[in-house]
Amino acid sequence: xxxxxxxxxxxxxxxxPAEVLLQNANLDYLVLECLAERTIALAQQRKLHDENxxxxxxxxxxxxxxxxxxxxxxxxxxxxxxxxxPVAAAKKTLDIARExxxxxxxxxxxxxxxxxxxxxxxxxxETNCSVSDYGLFISANAYLGVxxxxxxxxxxxxxxxxxxxxxxxxxxxxxxxxFGWSVDDYNNLGQGIITGHLLECxxxxxxxxxxDACRKEVPDLVNIGFPYAEIGADGRSVISKVEGTGxxxxxxxxxxxxxxxxxxxxxxxxxxxxxxxxxxxxQEVGKNQVEVSxxxxxxxxxxxxxxxxxxxxFLGEGEISYAGTNALARAEIAEEIVxxxxxxxxxxxxxxxxxxxxxxxxxxxxxxPYEVRLRAAGYHQSEEIAALVGEEVEALYLNGPAAGxxxxxxxxxSIGVLSTLINREQVTSKVYVDGYTNNExxxxxx
Amino acid sequence: MKLFEIAxxxxxxxxxxxxxxxxxxxxxxxxKLCRSVTAAAVKNHLKDIVNGEVVRYELPNxxxxxxxxxxxxxxxxxxxxxxxxxxxxxxxxxxxxxxH
Lengths: 446, 100
Known about the structure:
The complex is a heterodimer.
Chain A: E1 2-8, H1 16-24, E2 29-32, H2 39-49, H3 59-72, E3 76-79, H4 86-100, E4 104-110, E5 137-142, H5 146-153, E6 159-161, H6 169-179, H7 186-199, E7 227-231, E8 237-241, H8 251-258, E9 268-269, E10 274-276, E11 281-286, E12 289-293, E13 296-298, E14 303-323, H9 327-342, E15 350-354, E16 371-380, H10 383-394, H11 396-399, E17 405-423, E18 430-436, H12 439-445
Parallel strand pairs in A: 1-2, 2-3, 3-6, 4-6
Antiparallel strand pairs in A: 1-7, 4-18, 5-14, 7-8, 8-12, 9-10, 10-13, 11-12, 14-16, 14-17, 15-16
Chain B: E1 7-8, E2 11-14, E3 17-24, H1 30-36, H2 39-45, E4 54-59, E5 64-69, H3 90-95
Antiparallel strand pairs in B: 1-3, 2-3, 3-5, 4-5
């Protein structure tokens, strides 16, 4: 049996559930998945400013808390917190080990950065347009698979740090390493990806992002437990959480997460295998325990997916509230003023009535809210012009309809993301290994 | 009745595409969902939100449906002007649908 836990499912995830797993779940591996689509482009920008940066900004905070426990419990960590600079992340990790006087070996996986290899005539998977139609590229990273991670697992590293790899491959790699599955054992690989897919978003399988009043009650969300899987040599896994933690694991939570961000469930593309979810069987085998079995797969795709981050200008936003009788009518007067004032620079200005129709751009019932908040938003390549959106909304204080209040305005630099494909031969992954030996061990060696 | 009464849903995003799972609380309702909640019915219900086509995938093994809605996020998470750039709230819009 192999036990893998998830200690983070996104870059801003909580830290203490990982500590709870390390203390109580008898894990072999802990995985921290912290790299969203845009995160790596932001990291690349930090690396351009400082070559020792470009890894996850929370790496230090997380590892200061987790490293002592990981080493004490002999649990290996696999994480994509390397972001745009896995080697710098490995060095930072060793700095922390040195400070805490803990012996530690670290491996960094590189090779996902393909900015130099991108052909600007490549076609965007999203729009079928040439990728050169978009703004200046900041980053281009191939989604590496288990081939890149396994060599790091074959070292003695306690901590394995990657940049961009396919999220479920972070979980498949230790399964292959442990069970010795072959590269053409498609059904085991498919099942292993499915277990990884269920685990990669941390509590989204254990009761997070699930609760609703009355029909979907989840106990103790305040102290929600993160998931771990107990995996057999045939890939069959049981998803559970530590006893006494909050949250819930049943077939409902597992089904919701199984289909999360999935298109054709019979053809879930990863760098390692095309997984087939249409054969999966789920069964509740205990309290907060669901067995996942019978996943299958087909041969991996020929090409690797690449995610490109590009400069997409600046997003300007402004908001103002109206309340009481005629709140919506006054918000509509304000909207007309802002739209006309900004039309020359922002013909596509977006406006929303928050509280009525802002999230779905429509609504499914006719009630009039007591308060309405007008929001205006527009993109511009110039930061100064993008700021006009918020400035025009603010000007409604004196120049708009009666009793508007609570203006907020901001300008955000925007990074767009595109996807394309790259030949595997153009991508070469490498493993960098380094270590620190603490004073006691060093003196005993001497 | 509203879908909300018999089923639950989660939204996921990739680029400008949102997928909406639809899972009956009672597995016996799966056939009813297959009959009433066609791709065309979902496209009609979400016509102000989904600009592209809607494709439905059936998963009889876990008694669930998956709707893939193209051109639904005003260009996608990273450059959309929408409030909910990921379309994460769209599962609630699906569950507002009336079925007979």
